[in-house]
Amino acid sequence: MPHVPLRPKLLTALAEGYGLRDLRADLVAGLTVAIVALPLSMAIAIASGVGPERGLVTAIVGGALVSAFGGSRFQIGGPAGAFIVLVAACVMQTGVSGLVLATLLSGVMLALLGVLRLGGYIRFMPYPVTVGFTTGIGVIILASQFKDMLGLSLPGGEPGPILPKIAALWGARGTASPMAIAVALATIALIVGLKRFAPRLPSLLIAVALVTLITALAGLPVETIASKFGELPRFLPAPALPDLSWNKVSTALPWALSFTLLGAIESLLSAMVADGMSGGQHRSDMELVAQGIANIGSALFGGICVTGTIARTATNVRAGARSPIAGIAHSVILLATMMVAAPLAGSIPLAALAGLLGIVAWNMIERHEFAALTRASRGDALVLWVTFLVVTFRDLAEGIVLGFALGGLVFIRHMAELAQLREGSAPAADNPEAQDPDVLRYRLHGMVFFGSVARLGTILTRIAQRPRMVEIDVAEVSFIDSTGVQMIATLAKQLQRRGGALVIVNARPDIVQALNAYGLAQAGVDILPAPL
């Protein structure tokens, strides 16, 4: 992989020349993104099992650090819907203090991945895995919003796994609140209507603000942010280190690993989306370092996991951002809003935020891509469905790892099937137009590696039973590994025991180097390079 410097895109943007027109464009984009991020950050935090103020802290602190140190010109950092499932489960098991510690540890791991230059490898995620886990997360988030959308009462708490959750929600259907349902439906209808008929307007903020105003003026009996969590603070909390005792660290470490895996994938995927929309090129390793710094900063202020957010990043690009200053401006605007309008935000109905997240979750369910991959091939369909089912009904991290491993096996099988050994003919020494009866020539095609050795080895074993001179033309071999070389060496030994010999012809320089590196010449095999 080409060496890319660990240099923030902010420095690059400023070095290229940054004027008043660029600043104006970035401020407008930052305001646009802040309008989207304000209700969304609180909704994601509430759905994650923590207070809404932690979502705002995450967007303010984490968002500013991602933009200041990131490897993407347009990336917007903050709390993401993809983390809701993991964060909620972490809070249930370790409490908020354990979540903060896991976020801090994850930040250290992410930064280390970037420093070790592993960002490019994390991008090697099969597309069916990405669609499978995104769709699974969307289904889980959607199911988690029914409680507040319907105003259900669950005295025993809401279960985490989706099947017990659905059973509990169904059992509590008699406690549904018509007012909560009306508020959620009104929010959803406003968001959908504004997106269709006025797509340039900030539909999320307008819908939540309008429903909140009507609810407050009418005095509707619905649960609000203030009634459940109390009044929102107007200032950021003082930074503080979480408890770093070994017992706390050992408990938080598995969660930190999951946060790191998902955070790396989500942030780099978001940066790639920004590249596709803008024509730019992000720096993967620098982006991981920035995500690490942002998660450490968020944890110090009591925030939750930070990652690149696809929807807000896309909004930033569409709003005309010129540099990472737009992301910093979005965080500053959120902080100013928190200082001025915190009491007003407390009046937002939870059913309205649930309706908003319901729309977000529905958009995360990649229906068209899911259907297309299901029809594409048996291998892609298998990887897609396994990832989706494990993420939805088992565990997010397990789904990603299993999907990635299964995708690798499908790829290995496909590459192995492309490797072929075809019988050819060798010209006679005294007459080039005639075939030499004492020489068997075969043409080897494709990748000769551990995946294709089993099939090719069976053919070569039958060849070894005919003790003559055997030539193998490797002009069309694109790659050979140690297992492939060992297969050829075994053929050579079998031929030699029967009085025959083996010659490799038309080997490119890289193939010659590989054959010699694995000791094929020492096995008594002549290796003839391809003519220049």
TrEMBL record:
Entry membrane topology: Multi-pass membrane protein
SUPFAM superfamilies, per the entry: SpoIIaa-like
InterPro entries: SLC26A/SulP_dom, SLC26A/SulP_fam, STAS_dom, STAS_dom_sf
TM spans (from-to): 27-48, 55-76, 82-115, 127-146, 166-192, 204-222, 252-274, 332-362, 382-412
Subcellular location as annotated: Membrane
UniProt cross-references to PROSITE patterns, sorted A to Z: STAS (PS50801)
Chief site of localization: membrane
UniProt keywords, alphabetically: Membrane, Transmembrane, Transmembrane helix
Keyword NAD in annotation: no
Domain STAS, first and last residues per copy: 437-532
Name of this protein: SulP family inorganic anion transporter
Taxonomy of the source species: Bacteria, Pseudomonadati, Pseudomonadota, Alphaproteobacteria, Rhodobacterales
